[in-house]
Design a protein that fits this description.
heterotetramer, A: four-stranded antiparallel beta sheet, 9 helices, 16 strands, B: alpha/beta, seven-stranded mixed beta sheet, 5 helices, binds flavin-adenine dinucleotide, binds flavin mononucleotide, binds FE2/S2 (inorganic) cluster, electron transfer activity (chains B, D), transport (chains B, D), flavin adenine dinucleotide binding (chains B, D)
Chain lengths: 303, 252, 303, 252
């Protein structure tokens, strides 16, 4: 018997597979396809202080082995999420993780305060890749000090463990991770998308209405693996890994690099069953490479 | 309910310049598809599926017809698929054209432009079954792109328009609106500028429009394919709430 | 008639297509396949002060729509290059660009000084993505001040125009570009590879002997386009664009984003004729999108 | 000279577990290939070509045979290609086994392991044509992986070894070296540990080894596939200078 379970701060996972934030809405659509109770956990679409409409369309573009997206944090606002989305997801009895976004520290604080009202929330994934409107649009996620500050403030307000989601658009991912660990984060989630662009030849202009978009999918997997491998050598808090996962072999690659669990985003679009498919295939893949559990594989490439 | 299905290619043929008609076999989808719904099709080598409207179903033969224009790498690859191969499809997706909504119309006008023609053809066949009288305007770039003219003629009076006048009437679909007889309701599908022109010209009429937008998931989870709406909700999802909306429900 | 010619500092290009450094050796191998005289220019493999053996193997790995490489600057040393490689390439009567690498500023200075001996060199591409051994392995290419310093020093020693090649592994590519422009660079070349990793499951270790490698190929094209688009808005010196180009349409995308000319790397491996093929197809593609010259297309997405 | 050629698949069949034999038609390559050279094969959906040795040529039929083991996504896709399709190949690449170099040997020993067997088979057929006496050791994981036994028997005395003893002799190819008769020269191809063991065991003999390494360009331009050498040059390129080297020329 291969043991798929993983225990992380706030998260008792029956398996290490969860859908990534923004690629799974609040689970309603994919619950038509399969029983979400099979998942290790679920990470909801970003929640902000108020409802947001997001960006103009087009919001997505296809790229070689990947895609760009600039949804722009469209969501019904944290209150509505607490009222209607968390209760919907709680029927599946799997840990629910809220992805928290904001344009100011105050907005982050507000979101986590409202989330405290829910008794069904297992953890927070702190999305610090949003532009900080007060600081002139600079992202919290590219400056170690700003990232540490928002982590600390959020930690003070929330009841649940906080996983800070790292942006890969930085010169030194290890500095970011260390600053966030020192600020009290319970875990890291990595990586978010890389900033990219596609030019639409007929209109001679960026295809995505927002001009730039976040690159995800298999194209970015080597970058995700490298960053997780590097960060793993410098922090002790657990890592939820993501970026281009499509198969159970990919999951093992993330585990070996240092991830304790993984999230799957873009691949849901091609195969809505990708999460349960991988959960089913993972034991055989672990066995093939000589592992008896997920825990055993984590960090296996660091010898 | 949307299912992930394997569909077998029964036939695939070019019916106009860069335009392919493909007949696919699948029991579930042929039994459940309604006009205006689409298939979300996986294509080798592509990260995202491609949305293509359902152009006809034959529930006895358990087949579904799609019609697509080769405009990029995805449709180019799809056009190379051979009879006998199976394709991986999500479907049927979205909400189609309402037919039974409100008072049943006695006469309708169908307006299709280019690759917006396929879904309104499927709709026309349904309307005819319900005993509704159908007249159609179908518009194309030029003569070489015209398809399904006879099929539409079989449904009722049909006006063919080409932008360059190389076939049928010259101009845009809206240029022949004055040639149509009175109708209770209209349905339209085509590029956004055409839909704008149609809804402007037919303001005051009950109408339904089918929209296109670049999609991620195709099932309502990713918020890629939204369209601004008149109500406070702000945005609707084309893949899930649409692709068909009432002409006055969304902001063009 | 579509005009493919482009005039840049030191470079009178009959067309904007050149093979990228490190993917074309010194041209000998590809000269079996076609007449190199068709190319806009040629960028040689990196030259260092002394001959270098490079890294252990495996040095390459395939990734989704891309590849990782960690060749490690293997080259016969700048003297040998001046003696035997530049003379070989000069027979094709196209501009020859030397890619210059080094582990210290002194090494960069030495390389360009030796290159001055050649009368057949049109320009230098300054590869600042190498780890600086004196500064403890930090790359010149990730710190604007260090990049500016090496640019200035090299500019003082060389006779030919200098195109500085930017590393994409930075938080702020615009800051890098501006610092390098201010330091006197004649042009920019962008982008170099993104640092990535692949874990080899059977051995549970990084596949590339050097552990990390540089990610290239179509996978990184959206990142290259974004960076060129951003930089183009802040500098006036010309840009040689690269990263994932495989087709004439890709070239147009780079031109519209702001590149004045382009280089093609990884795609040579799949199709040794990719450069002449694109040169042949480019006029039709430019025409299709309404351009009569390459110059006209450059920066076309910035309206 | 290496050319970029289209090769038509004449046949493709599984001849052992996960092992495919493919016959490809192309005049240029069938006329120019020598034993030990390889083809660099483009495979749909892959950034890099795959190097595969030439296992036989028939210049009358203008065919080239390759034999490959399905070990990853590239070879998996290649195995799905159908008879009649064409594949895009660079070839013939590299320098093969020297046969005419130095004094012509009267007797040779061929040692192949697993997927290193194909090139030495091609070599064996050539040697036989030159009137050189051939004996062979071919090693496989287990019974189900054995191929070309009869073909090698036709060339001369052949020892089949399997690691688990499920067929032929049990152990490694080096375990049966003492059963061979005297030879003037040996040629070997197989995984690196095997080549190390062979060259250690046969130290003092004239020998040629064929190496594998992950490749980028496959033509000598990218420096991906180097191997350390004994001379001051430091490194040689497997794709261009090799894949065959004298046993004492490179550092194992
Ligand atoms: C609900 C719906 C129904 C449609 N029905 C049909 C149909 O019946 N026949 C038909 O020919 N076309 C139809 N389209 C358009 C069709 O989806 C695109 O032409 C197709 O996706 C282009 O793919 P490509 O790879 O060839 O082009 P590329 O330009 O290479 O595609 C790149 C990306 O952009 C997307 N894209 C490009 N154009 C469109 C577009 N107009 N709408 C949505 N996404 C686009 C692609 O899906 C892909 O993700 C429909 C679109 C929608 C949204
Ligand atoms: C000169 C030469 C001759 C060869 N001849 C044969 C042959 O006749 N029959 C045969 O079955 N195999 C042969 N190989 C090995 C063959 O190239 C690999 O098995 C094949 O490339 C694996 O591709 P894949 O996509 O299935 O595996 P993957 O592991 O998915 O490949 C990933 C990448 O690694 C490379 N790679 C993986 N294993 C090897 C390897 N052993 N050697 C070189 N590159 C590798 C691939 O080319 C690809 O770039 C030869 C290798 C070389 C260098
Ligand atoms: C359409 C889309 C929307 C996303 N929305 C969010 C989001 O709201 N919050 C967030 O933290 N990450 C968001 N992401 C990033 C993903 O959660 C994930 O980090 C990234 O896509 C890499 O994983 P993947 O390659 O498996 O998709 C989004 C990604 C996509 C493709
Ligand atoms: C095998 C290989 C070797 C490379 N060597 C060099 C080098 O020596 N100097 C350099 O500046 N860039 C080097 N590069 C980077 C390329 O010149 C180019 O910037 C990068 O690969 C992106 O372009 P591409 O996607 O077209 O390959 C190398 C790239 C590859 C794949
Ligand atoms: S495509 Fe994902 S919500 Fe419509
Ligand atoms: S593979 Fe490029 S030098 Fe051998």
């Amino acid at each position: 018997m291969i043991d798929l379970s993983v225990t992380l701060p706030g998260l008792n996972l029956q398996n290490p597979i969860m859908p990534a934030s923004g690629c799974f809405g609040f689970g309603r659509e994919y619950s038509q396809f399969y029983d979400l109770g099979k998942l290790g956990a679920v990470i909801m679409k970003a929640a902000t202080g108020e409802a947001r409409l997001g960006n103009k369309t087009p919001r997505v573009a296809e790229t070689a082995s990947g895609m760009l997206n600039a949804i722009g944090l469209q969501n019904p606002g944290v209150e509505k999420i607490v009222e209607t989305e968390i209760p919907f997801l709680s029927q599946f009895h799997i840990p629910i993780i809220a992805n928290v976004a904001g344009s100011t520290i105050e907005e982050y604080e507000k979101v986590v305060t409202v989330l405290n009202e829910s008794t069904d929330l297992a953890a927070i994934e702190l999305n610090i890749s949003c532009p900080n409107v007060k600081e002139g649009g600079i992202q919290f996620g590219i400056d170690p000090e700003m990232a540490a500050t928002v982590t600390e403030k959020v930690k003070k307000r929330t009841r649940v463990p906080v996983y800070v989601k790292l942006s890969p658009n930085v010169t030194n991912i290890v500095d970011m991770a260390k600053a966030i660990e020192a600020a009290g984060a319970d875990g890291l989630s990595m990586i978010n998308t890389l900033t990219g662009m596609q030019i639409h030849l007929p209109s001679k202009a960026p295809l995505i209405a927002n001009k730039t978009g976040g690159l995800s999918g298999p194209a970015i997997k080597p970058i995700a693996i490298r960053m997780i491998y590097e960060v793993k050598q410098h922090v002790t808090i657990p890592i939820i890994g993501m970026g281009g996962i499509e198969t159970a072999e990919d999951v093992l690659e993330f585990l070996l690099a240092g991830a304790d669990a993984v999230a799957i985003g873009t691949a849901n679009f091609l195969n809505p069953f990708v999460c349960p498919d991988i959960i089913e295939q993972l034991p055989a893949v672990l066995k093939k490479y000589g592992f008896t559990s997920v825990k055993e594989a984590t960090g296996g490439a660091h010898q | 309910m949307i299912k992930k299905e394997a569909m077998k290619i029964i036939s695939s043929k070019q019916i106009a310049t860069d335009t392919v008609e493909m007949v696919l076999e699948n029991e579930y989808i042929s039994n459940h598809a309604t006009p205006g719904q689409f298939l979300h099709i996986a294509i080798t080598g592509h990260t995202l599926r491609r949305p293509l409207s359902i152009a006809a179903v034959d529930s006895k033969a358990r087949t579904v017809t799609i019609l697509f224009k080769i405009i990029g790498s995805g449709t180019e690859t799809l056009a190379t698929y051979q009879v006998g191969e199976t394709i991986d499809v999500l479907g049927p997706n979205g909400n189609g054209f309402p037919v039974q909504t409100g008072q049943k119309p006695a006469t309708v006008l169908l307006i299709g432009g280019g690759i917006g023609v396929p879904p309104i053809y499927f709709l026309g066949t349904q309307l005819k079954k319900f005993g509704i009288q159908v007249q159609s305007i179908i518009g194309f770039q030029s003569r070489d792109y015209v398809f399904y003219e006879n099929e539409f003629q079989a449904l009722g009076e049909t006006f063919v328009v080409t932008n360059d006048g190389s076939y049928g009437y010259k101009g845009f679909v809206t240029d022949v609106l004055d040639k149509t007889s009175r109708f209770d309701r209209y349905y339209s599908c085509g590029p956004l500028p055409m839909l704008r022109a149609v809804s402007d010209n037919l303001r005051g009429n009950e109408g339904y429009l089918s929209f296109e937008e670049r999609m991620g998931c195709g099932v309502g989870a990713c918020y890629a394919c939204v369209i601004p709406t008149e109500d406070e909700a702000g945005y609707k999802k084309i893949c899930q709430d649409g692709p068909v909306f009432r002409a006055n429900e969304v902001i063009l």
